[in-house]
Amino acid sequence: MRKKRVNKGNNLHSQHDILDGLAQIFRVKQSGDVYQFRMYVKDEQKHYRKSLKTSDLETALIRGRELGMELSTNVKQGKRVFGQSIEEAVELYLDDRKTDVDSGLIVKGRWSAISTQLKHFVEIVGRRTKVSELDRGSLFEYSRLRKAIANKKTGKTVTDTTVANEQSTINHMMKFLNRKDISHFDLFDFKKIKIRQDDIGKRDTFKLEEYDKLVRFMRSYVADKNCKDENEKLERMIIRDYVLISSNSCMRVGELRQLTWGDVTRIETIFDDKEKEHYLAHINVRAETSKVKTKRKIICRGGEYFERLKKRQRFTSSEHLVFTSVNGTSGLSSQKWAKHWRALMTGIGVSLKEWKDDRNLTWYSLRHFGITMRVMSNVNILDIAKLAGTSVNHIENTYLKYKEESMRTQAMKSFSITKDGTVLEKESS
Fold first, then answer.
1. Among residues 124, 106, 227, which one has the least CA distance to residue 172?
2. pLDDT, tens digit, for every residue of 187-225?
């Protein structure tokens, strides 16, 4: 250890080299007798400084050596000493995902969901915590902590599915931070969550009578007398056809809202064995719009809804969104989707508490309904999985509980559900 006397102009009482000169402890007039630590981090070309919170030299030397050795170890392991805080890192990631919204890779609603998920992450980790202070095992007990905090704050239970989705989002962010050289690792090792069957089944769907009522209500919803002007009428027509296309195609919300007219490759007219005319839509689901990042081609009923919509739309070039805003510059805003959903639920007599809190009916429920109808109608599970862009295992785990309801199909003759599970309007809208 070498003690240096420094002139009064530097405001130093004294300075001591430690760790063979790699670091120093010192006192300055402004801090009184309290010792400070300083170490130069070569890789980041910056001095690390920290108060040792003691005026005793021997204690300061011990604490300084421990801190210096810890920093040296972190540097050797590739950890950043002056990394960003968790709050800053999350903001950086969310800004990056905003570009995905602008480019149409994700919808605004998905961005909002990601933002909410990461707020829980920040709450658990601490907004001022440095990314460099974390390692792969830091969030092993995330599930337990997340549930405990939620229960304490709201008294509500957080499902395993919710936690699993949050963990997936967190790790997606960590991969991003690792690519940006902000984090020295790319994934947290979360404690494995076993999703219970009861938890999987909590995605709610429509009852048959509710869906039939919805179809009938939408006829009045788009009527001239109920629309203040042509723009509102067009927007409501877009919503009406979205409902019908969603339940027939079983596409995800994000896939549908990013669907362009170029993705609808053709409408095919076919006749069944009773010479009844049907319209099939051929659709390319792009990998960048899919939740599972895998492209697929689907053929589904409901081609007439695409044709009807295209005739009324003002923007139908291949790059234009199918479900666009009236001005054609972008998709409908999240506020408008929410407004129309509230209007539809009110229109069919489902209370706010029931659809929002008790049953969690959302735009996704239309996809859920379409899949459920096909399961109940004995459509081949592999075919359903291909249509929906999911696994056979997922279909079996999530939807086969509805299979027993297929025995009630004779009681459903008045509803517009065909034997193959196609969701149709009973009358032309």
1. 106
2. 999 988 876 544 444 558 898 899 999 999 999 999 999
- The strand pairing partners of 299, in sequence order, are 282
The answer to whether residues 136 and 165 belong to one domain is yes
Domain presence at residue 334: yes
Shared domain for 49 and 99, answered yes or no, is no
128's CB contacts (< 8 A; 6+ apart) are 85, 86, 87
Q: Do 114 and 246 lie in a common domain?
A: no
Regarding whether 384 and 248 lie in a shared domain, the answer is yes
Could you give the number of structural domains in the chain? 3
CATH number at residue 134: 1.10.150
- Its domain, for residue 146, covers 86-196
Inside any domain, residue 202: no
Asked if 243 and 368 sit in the same domain, the reply is yes
**Residues 283, 375 share a domain:** yes
Q: Which residue has the tokens 């919509």?
A: 309
379/305 same-domain check: yes
Q: Kindly report the CA angle at 386 between 282 and 283, in degrees rounded to 5?
A: 15
Within-domain flag for 420: no
C-alpha pair distances (Å), 200 with each of 66, 162, 194, 195, 363: 49, 10, 11, 7, 18
**What is the DSSP secondary structure assignment for residue 331, as one 8-state letter?**
B
Relative to beta strand 46-51, strand 36-41 is antiparallel
The answer to whether 18 touches 68, Cβ cutoff 8 Å, is yes
- The Cα–Cα gap between 180 and 174 comes to 10
Q: Which residue has the tokens 């096909």?
A: 374
Residue 417 placed within a domain: no
Kindly state the tokens that stand for 172.
């997606």
Query: Given CA atoms 103, 107, 109, 115 in this order, what sign does their dihedral have?
Result: negative
Same domain for 249 and 293?
A: yes
Q: Full-prediction pTM beyond 0.70? A: no
CATH of the domain at 347: 1.10.443.10
| Separation CA 403–CA 412 (nearest Å) | 15
Token digits of residue 34: 């309290």
How many beta carbons lie within 10 A of that of residue 152, not counting itself?
8
Residue 306: how many CA atoms within 13 Å on its side-chain side?
A: 30
For 92, the enclosing helix (H) or strand (E) is helix 86-102
Please state, in angstroms and rounded to a whole number, the distance separating the CA atoms of residues 382 and 395.
9
Tens-digit pLDDT profile for residues 141-172: 999 999 999 888 888 788 888 888 899 999 99
Length of the chain, in residues: 429
Amino acid in position 83: G
Residue 305 has pLDDT above 80, yes or no: yes
% residues pLDDT > 70 (the chain): 86
